[in-house]
Amino acid sequence: MAMKKQRCFWCTDDKDYINYHDNEWGIPCYDEKRLFEMLLLEGFQAGLAWITVLKKRQHYRKVLYNFDPDKLAIMTDDYISQLLQDKGIIRNRLKLQAARKNAQAWLQLDNPVEFMWSFVNAKPKINHFTGKLEIPITTPESDAMSKALKKANFSFVGSTICYAYMQAVGMVIDHTMDCFMHPTHQG
Predict the structure, then answer these.
(1) Active-site residue 50, yes or no?
(2) Best exposed site among 16, 65, 102, 127 by fewest CB in 10 Å?
């Protein structure tokens, strides 16, 4: 009988959560499109459980032009009003307006991948936490990212959102030490 893999404390038995944990979260991402998508999704998550956003991600891709910043940057107020009627997403005008504003700001960055990764000196920071109480909600790096993004005209990019983003895209590796995904357990 196969032994059940030990995962991070937050990963439930939900198949979407397991897939996200095992194949995305904490895995270094240098893909510009995915880095942008995750920044917007983390903003949509503000004040909610991540599973809420995760369950709606496919629909977000459909209605938000597959997170194409060129298309999102010119999204009209009328379209945002239409989206506020769509039960397949989190219906929050400020978050939808922020998606447009963030797309515009993203397009102004010379090299978005390099910019985003600069807050961890272009390489993942591997932490060795044993439990959830050790994991911070902000760090000096997420504070710096938040400050720089706000200066570059981004919204919904507070330090807590930035740290969750850094975890999601593998800028920081916060898989706990007992999790099979922690680098010490990888071949």
Answers:
(1) yes
(2) 16
